[in-house]
């Protein structure tokens, strides 16, 4: 369902007695509500966010509830400029400057929710 599916609905059909007649039910009102984004979590591969210098880190973001379409963005150290979009962020060759707190933000256009920051340490 989408928000634009809200409205008044009725069903109808031909009733075949002596003479066929079109009959309709009383209308019913259907209201579709948006579910705010909540329960944003992230996890890392390798687990724990400790990565050897030059190795790859993959971060994944999940949402427990929220009406779509959802947009994802990845941020390091609270930066407004996203590192990437989508539910997955891959950093192929980590360097010394890549250590820090990473966070996933999810929006449905009306509400925004963030994951708890994950501390990534490049060893």
Automatic annotation (TrEMBL):
Segment forming the signal sequence: none
Alphabetized SUPFAM superfamilies for the sequence: Immunoglobulin
Gene3D superfamilies reported in the protein's UniProt record: Immunoglobulins
InterPro entries: Ig-like_dom, Ig-like_dom_sf, Ig-like_fold, Ig_sub, Ig_sub2
UniProt xrefs under Pfam families: Ig_3
Domain Ig-like: 27-121
Name of the protein: FCRL2 protein
Lineage, uppermost ranks: Eukaryota, Metazoa, Chordata, Craniata, Vertebrata
Gene: Fcrl2_0
């Amino acid at each position: 369902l989408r928000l634009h599916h809200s409205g008044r609905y009725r069903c109808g059909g031909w009733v075949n007695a002596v003479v066929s007649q079109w009959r309709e039910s009383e209308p019913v009102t259907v209201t579709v509500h948006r579910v705010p984004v909540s329960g944003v979590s992230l996890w890392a591969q390798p687990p724990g966010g400790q990565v050897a210098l030059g190795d790859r880190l993959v971060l994944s973001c999940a949402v427990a509830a929220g009406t779509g379409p959802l947009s994802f963005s990845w941020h390091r150290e609270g930066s407004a400029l996203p590192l990437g979009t989508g539910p997955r962020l891959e950093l192929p060759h980590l360097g010394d400057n890549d250590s820090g707190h990473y966070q996933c933000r999810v929006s449905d256009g009306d509400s925004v929710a963030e994951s708890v920051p994950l501390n990534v340490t490049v060893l």
